[in-house]
Amino acid sequence: MSASQTPSDSPSTPSDSSSRCAERDRSISAPRRFTVALAGTPNCGKTTLFNRISHLRHKVANYPGATVEKRSAIVRLGGREIEIVDLPGIYSLGTESQDELVTRDFCLRQRPDLILAVLDATNLERGLYLLLQWLELGFPVLAALNLWDEAQALGLRIRVERLAQLLGVHVIPTVARTGEGLAALLKALEEAARNPVVPAFHLPLEPPIEEEITRLVHLLEQRDGPANAYPLDWAAMKLLEGDSALTDELRAGVAADDPVVCEIEAGAHRLRALYGQPLALVLSARRHEYARELARQVVAVVPRRGPTVSDRIDRLIVSTGFGLPLFLVVTYLVFEFAFAVGHAPMAWIEAGVGALSAGLMSVLPAGVFRSLIVDGVVGGVGGVLVFLPNILLLFIAMAVLEDSGYMARGAAIMDRLMSRVGLHGKSFIPMMIGFGCNVPAIMAARTLENRRDRLITMLVLPMMSCGARLPVYVLFISAFFTRGAPVLFSIYLLGIFMAVISAIIFRRIVFRGGRTPFVLELPPYRIPTLRSVLIHAWDHAWMYLKKAGTVILLLSVVVWFLSTYPRPPKTADAAGPAALRYTVAGTVGSLIEPVLRPIGLGDWKVGVALVSGFAAKEVVVASFATLYNVGESAERSSALRAALRRDPLWTPLSAYALMVFVLLYIPCLPAMVMLRRETGSWKWVALEIAYTTTLAYTVALIVYQGGKLLGWG
After folding, report:
1. Average pLDDT for 84-103
2. How confident is the model at residue 303, as a pLDDT?
3. Residues 608 and 647 in one domain
4. Nearest by Cα to 311 from 467, 574, 499, 525
5. Is residue 705 part of a domain?
6. Last residue of a domain, one of 173, 194, 215
7. How many domains does the chain have?
8. Residue 125's domain is classified under what CATH number?
9. Angle subtended at Cα 162 by Cα 157 and Cα 163, rounded to the nearest 5 degrees
10. What is the Cα–Cα distance from 536 to 456, expressed in whole angstroms?
């Protein structure tokens, strides 16, 4: 069949030269635990469907890159265990991005028993392009035609039975957001688990390409090598395309004059000479053509009058003059919302923690054990929990922006600015995730195709104020500033500004070279569901609570111990805070104190808090609560704020300098571990630690000394 041929009534017709791809309808003996890979393009509702099937509550966002690594869940259907693996959203089985590699490696190396392909019904051609590649690999496939309601609203009428006939797979219309079609999908999944069938499919190719693939397959069949671990048709095709990952794997330990290597180079050269372009582009065009013709045969469009609602909104939202100011106003209102609404719940939690402390002090005898429980455990953990309402409200607001589709518009708006400073437009998405936590933000940088762009993004991401820093900001803002939202907004803006400056430095000094074009699909606007918003916010709140009950609890006890022992000698006239000077924490803090003095933080307690904050930024607040000895106060948070105000060290200027330093200095330990994992080298971790610490000190110095010169001290 020539490249100009189109799909017929049958799924496909193999060419005469493709006897190796004859009918493959056959039952596959399934293992006890049936594995299903949930795969699809970004923003097709894949993770929402995963949550519906598995009853889990993974984060769902209305922009590409939300699923940054595979997740799995075990469900029971028909009395049988089925493992469903949610893979990152991708557009193709290439090697351009880390998400593509994660998905491809899992499917090729672990060979799931079924691919549950999630298709976006509003953009069927794009989903079919990916589905065809699953069929090329010989997987059993079940298709979920998701966003069915939106397709209907757009005037799209899809002939589902005709599509299933052309593909040779079962196709189920679904609306993952509401659960519509879920019962039918689960029934089809249960049937597929009992009798998984590989559809007979072969992408129609022109004879010269078929001949080159056949020639290379014969060579691969005659030897054992990495390519034999994959379907040989597919492996030969990818090698002729110049697939970097597979080529590197094949050439490892193989001589340059190896017959297979020579045949790959000769075949690729012959095809390039024949078609005037690399085979990868030829095959991509062929798949797109085939998917387009499939969509043409099954989709009828009811004419609509005028532009869609999303189109009309975007004319204003992403406009050059209005888009950026609106984005800044929306961001400011998010912080105002978190502060204004969170004030009362903070007071309730503080009262509860105070009542718990008072109750413990009334039943526990005075001594070291009571100090450990009240000062170390309740004081440290309770001092962090009081800021939970602010964090919860902040993520509720961000969830609304994400689920509505506005965050994708924010990326498009910011690309105009970011492209001028060396950051890729897609970097905006990990940066926004970084406002929640830097660890998943670093992982989300996988969506950037270019390694240089990925590295720059990962190195500047820790300058985004994560939720762990928020308790520090709230503590000092509530203690020294009348209006909280403007101060907090300025800190977040400063983090973005320093990320931009750092990107310029990295781009011009460390990572020279061009940037890849910015291409991002703008999803339609959607009304966020209450369930999705609450799940998103609760997931972040639960992570915060788990950290408070584990990492922060442990570190609070460690800080208590280091600030309690050794005891001052009996001959020393030391009591209360003065006794802390003799402890391990006091000794460490005293060594750091001279270094911190120029930036207005010349107190040993600040040094201890900042060192402990390397493990987790929330511990800075817990450390201050312990070091200022407010554990036995009923109103612990109020007592800590009062203690800070009484300390001559603290003024609004020095408090702001501390917040700047916490914003920019060494990222937390989990973020550094993730950076090592994603970059594959400790040298980038060392660079990040050295650069961020130097930057934090420099900016805090400018803020403090500049403020003193202006009379703000």
Report:
1. 80
2. 61
3. yes
4. 525
5. yes
6. 194
7. 3
8. 3.40.50.300
9. 80
10. 28
Residues 474, 532, single domain; the answer is: yes
Taken as a whole, the chain contains a residue count of 713
Closest-CA residue to 586 (of 709, 572, 111, 207): 572
Question: What average pLDDT does the chain have?
Answer: 79
CA distance 158 to 288: 19
Contacts of 531 (CB under 8 A, 6+ apart): none
Q: d(Cα 370, Cα 393) in Å, to the nearest integer?
A: 34
CA separation for the pair 216, 202 (Å, rounded): 17
User: Alpha-carbon Rg of the chain, whole angstroms?
Assistant: 29
For residue 276, the Cα-to-chain-centroid distance in whole angstroms is 39
pLDDT at residue 30 in the model: 41
Mean pLDDT of 623-643: 72
CA distances from 400 to 62, 184, 333, 397, 548 (A): 10, 30, 13, 5, 26
Please indicate, yes or no, if residue 466 is contained in any of the structural domains.
yes
- 114-120: strand order across its sheet: 71-77, 80-86, 34-40, 114-120, 141-146, 170-173
E strand or H helix at 39: strand 34-40
Q: Are 453 and 568 contained in the same domain?
A: yes
Q: Do residues 451 and 546 share a domain?
A: yes
Angle at the Cα of 384 (from 379 to 385), degrees rounded to 5? 100
Higher pLDDT, 41 or 252: 41
What confidence category does residue 363 fall into, taking pLDDT thresholds of 50, 70 and 90?
A: confident
Amino acid letter at 607? G
3-class secondary structure, 626: helix
Q: 422 and 533: one domain?
A: yes
* DSSP 8-state secondary structure symbol assigned to residue 506: I
Domain at 267, CATH number: 1.10.287
What b/e string do you get for 336-358 counting C-beta neighbours within 10 Å, with b at 16 or more?
bebbeebeeebeebbeebbeebe
End-to-end Cα, the chain, rounded Å: 80
Q: Give the residues across from 36 on adjacent strands.
A: 84, 114
3-state class of 170 per DSSP? strand
pTM of the prediction?
0.60
Last residue of a domain, one of 194, 226, 257: 194
The per-residue DSSP string of 318-342 comes to T-TTTHHHHHHHHHHHHHHHHHHHH
Would you say residue 17 lies in a domain?
A: no
Whether 45 is in a domain gets the answer yes
Peptide bond into 566 cis (omega under 30): yes
> Could you give the angle at the alpha carbon of 51 between the alpha carbons of 545 and 47, nearest 5°?
100
- In sequence order, the 6+-apart residues with CB closer than 8 A to the CB of 439 are 670, 671, 674
Residue 689 has pLDDT above 80, yes or no: yes
Question: Do residues 254 and 393 both lie within one domain?
Answer: no
- Print burial letters for 521-543: b (CB count within 10 Å at least 16), e (below 16): ebbbbeebeeebbebbbbbbbeb
Instruction: Based on the fold, state whether residues 681 and 561 are members of the same structural domain.
Output: yes
* Spatial CB neighbours of 525, under 8 Å, sequence gap ≥ 6: 309, 310, 313, 404, 405, 406
| Residue 670, domain extent | 326-514+527-709
Same domain membership, residue 229 and residue 89: no
Rounded to whole angstroms, the Cα distance separating 172 from 40 reads 15
